Amino acid sequence: MRAFRLAGVAAQAETLRLRRRLRVTLCRAARAGMALPFALATVVFLELALWLALSARLAGWEAALSAAGVNLIPAALLALPALRSPAPDPLAEDAARLRREALAGIAAEWRWPALLVEVAAAALAITRKK
Q1: Phi–psi pair at 80, nearest 5 degrees
Q2: Cβ 80 vs Cβ 34: under 8 Å
Q3: pTM of this prediction?
């Protein structure tokens, strides 16, 4: 019975760890998604600035460059936290530790029965070959 209880604890700990990891991943994806339009606008304005600078040599390219710079600021502010690795989640680490301990307890509990099953299987294999 102890092994089944440990298996339940390990499953609950793993579920908690995966939920926490999913939450962090979804937050990072949301930030990256919010930064994407600004990054695309930056590329568009940089292209526009290059086109204006090369074709007309007028003051219009300065406006396009400043617009690209304005779009680059929120893109960087939103994208940098999404690209950075998140800090370790203490609750998720505790859940992973608890899962490892529970699985180690299961392995210790079932070591002898598993060994007996392997010995019996090997003995059956030997008798079948004869």
Answers
A1: -60, -45
A2: no
A3: 0.43
The length of the chain in residues reads 130
The alpha carbon torsion through 95, 100, 105, 109 (nearest 10 deg) reads: 130
How far the first Cα of the chain sits from its last, in Å, is: 39
Digit-coded pLDDT (tens) for 92-128: 788 778 878 877 777 777 666 666 667 777 777 777 6
Q: What is the pLDDT of residues 8-59, one digit of tens each?
A: 787 888 888 889 889 999 999 999 999 999 999 988 888 777 767 655 665 6
Look up tokens 């390990």; give the residue: 10
The token pair at 31 is 């930030």
Contact 1, 90 (CB under 8 A): no
Which DSSP state fits 84?
S
